[in-house]
Amino acid sequence: AQKITQTQPGMFVQEKEAVTLDCTYDTSDQSYGLFWYKQPSSGEMIFLIYQGSYDEQNATEGRYSLNFQKARKSANLVISASQLGDSAMYFCAMRGVYLVFGAGTILRVKS
Amino acid sequence: KAGVTQTPRYLIKTRGQQVTLSCSPISGHRSVSWYQQTPGQGLQFLFEYFSETQRNKGNFPGRFSGRQFSNSRSEMNVSTLELGDSALYLCASSEQGADTIYFGEGSWLTVV
Fold it and tell me: Taking the CB of the first residue and of the last residue of chain B, which one, N or C, has fewer CB atoms within 10 A?
């Protein structure tokens, strides 16, 4: 069975600073995909970034980058230059037959 | 390109009633999946449809059902509503084998 663990229930970051949200995973599959989503209070799940298990380069999308360490089974999200609008819940997820989500991390950006 | 559209956004139902939620995927996407999100259980997979066929189903009772139409639009139905069915129901769409899965804004269901 696949499992996603997000150990940080909540995080604070100062505006314009970088922040890392932790995600570890467990799977016996050789091929898998890892996702990060942002969920503001409105409820919409916004796709941020994807990393395939065979991708050698860490994925990047604008201010978002995924620090993928396959041997350690971790897929941490790094947000650079935090903005007030980044305040939201962030979910790490893994795709097997379907998406398995972690419990999420609430990020609060302080001005 | 329009995103994933879910209707209605908010609804309140009474215990014992039934509810139907609708999801229109991104144009060209044939895979549609549904998830339930609650504070206690987090995000849980309900079912996935591809080309009008249910491909996978999560661990939910038979009161939860769904279908997909030829235009890839999908509906999910919950019969005999219980208080515990109060949740955010999220629909996601993707192209087959694609690396990205997009979600809609969700339907907030409150059962009273």
Answer: N
